[in-house]
Amino acid sequence: MDQTFVDLLAGNLAHAAAFDDRFDDLQAAQHPHTVTVCCSDSRVLQDHMWGNEAPGRIFTCGNIGNRVVQRTDEGDVVSGDVLYPLAHTGTETAVVVGHTGCGAVTATYDALTGDVNDLPGIEGCLDLLKPLLEPGVEALPDDLSRPEAINRLVEYNVDRQVDVLVGSDDVPPGVEVVGAVYDFQDVYGGDRGEVHVVNVDGERGVADLRATYPAIEDRIRRLWVY
Questions:
Q1: Which residues, other chains included, contact 200 with Cβ-Cβ below 8 Å and sequence gap of 6+?
Q2: What's the distance, CA 158 to chain centroid?
Q3: Can you give the residue range of the structural domain that contains 183?
Q4: 31: how many CB neighbours lie within 10 A of its CB?
Q5: CA atoms of 188 and 181, how far apart (whole Å)
Q6: 217: which of 93, 96, 164, 210 fits an S-S bond (Cβ 3.0–4.6 Å)?
Q7: Is 60 helix (H, G, I), strand (E, B) or coil?
Q8: For the chain (length 226 residues), average pLDDT per consecutive 10?
Q9: 39 a known binding residue?
Q10: How far is it, in rounded angstroms, from Cα 72 to Cα 95?
Q11: Domain of 102: which CATH number?
Q12: 125 annotated binding-site participant
């Protein structure tokens, strides 16, 4: 067996020893206060980015492109993995977390601006992103470098995923939807690994968001106002 997995199992023993008594109140049910939808990426540490070590606190979902949409025979709907905690466990906050340098956004950008073919499973994921990102690609300023364009589309993708949740009748009333970007490239300033809020319930204006949420005004930043 590969030594890397052996090392992972050893790390799990340390985890189990530290967490053994943290599941006492969670044996029969869970009531997380937040569901996060993050991009599936080895550089995006879903619980650690929030400093979370409490089981039952955050319901974590991950997929390439931090998508909240899945395709069904009836059309595109809010993904069940996102909707489940909102509909069944009393979760009242949904956070869509994009990240700088996103590979899924990059692949979608390349597919929209060129001729890129990938494996069917990956193509299926990109096909869900393409209609959401295509207007953003067309609106990009002409003077951006490729990395700058990608990171602005990361924000744009977060905005569109937030829009889906805010506009869905399947999401219970009163759920707050936050859009954020996890920055490990020092694009936004501050320390690498910081989360920056770019959208709340569809509002993207930085000044308005800071006025409405003064407790986090220093965490509200955007690269692109469109």
A1: 176, 177, 178, 179, 209, 212, 213
A2: 7
A3: 29-219
A4: 13
A5: 9
A6: 210
A7: strand
A8: 96 96 96 97 96 97 96 92 96 98 95 79 87 97 96 98 97 97 96 98 98 98 95
A9: yes
A10: 23
A11: 3.40.1050.10
A12: no
